[in-house]
Amino acid sequence: MERIAVYAGSFCPFTKGHEDIVAKALPLFDKLIIAIGYNPDKRDVFDEFERQMWVKDIYKDNPKIHVLSYSELTVELCRLYQARYLIRGVRNARDFDAEQELAEINKRLAPEIETILFFASPELRMVSSSMVRELWRYGKDYSPFVSYKLPEK
Known about the structure:
By secondary structure, this protein is of the alpha/beta class.
């Protein structure tokens, strides 16, 4: 049986912190789906197509990685692609608490799907999409935190 995992998030934008989590998870799976989700509670600065293209470009030479967008519950996406694992990244204690709660909810909704937490490397713990967006918004150098150029404002 193929080991398939989903790494889901809004990824607005996809940062080197996210890349760090992918690098840690990838050796454990036959296929890793990076799923760019639509969250109605968030106002995305970059459109879904842009985010998908950025991530696809980063991993264009890796056949184990598939990038897509989705709008359903993440566990439903996992079922659709027969993924038995859900990957989540943790930067700090606040993230851990939130991810633990989310994992418990997902387990109730889909007991067959296991959430696996990966901890950010120390040098990337401060990197967040919201921090990158703020640097970009104010015209500051965000390049240490993303692997591509964001569009001009």
